[in-house]
Amino acid sequence: MTDLISENETVAVFGQFTYTSVVAQQTFTSPFSIKAMVKNGLITYFQFMEDTYASAASFRVAGEWIIQQDADSTKNFSVSENS
């Protein structure tokens, strides 16, 4: 955790952590952020954000991904082990 900000019932937390995918044994570090709402000592809302692309990539052991980022398929790009 690097930063914690609170105002009334709203809390925001920022930081980073390191994951290891157990079977593939690939490790990556991801930034994270959390927004929470606390009422009467209980969390009533919790939102967690991380680098889900890096998380998914840690499970890939071979092959190529074709990424479509736009309705225009000419803007697609590929991600392979060497990328």
Task: Provide a compact summary of the structure.
This protein has 83 residues and is mostly beta strands. The chain is 7% helix and 55% strand. A 4-stranded antiparallel sheet has the order 1-2-3-4. A two-stranded antiparallel ribbon has the order 5-6.
Would you give an account of this structure?
The protein is mainly β. The protein has one helix and six strands. The protein has one helix at 52-57; strands at residues 3-7, 10-21, 26-39, 42-50, 65-67, 77-79. The protein is elongated, with a radius of gyration of 18 Å. The protein starts with a strand and ends with a strand. InterPro entries: NTF2-like_dom_sf.
Break the fold down into its secondary structure elements and pairings.
Layout: E1 3-7, E2 10-21, E3 26-39, E4 42-50, H1 52-57, E5 65-67, E6 77-79
Antiparallel strand pairs: 1-2, 2-3, 3-4, 5-6
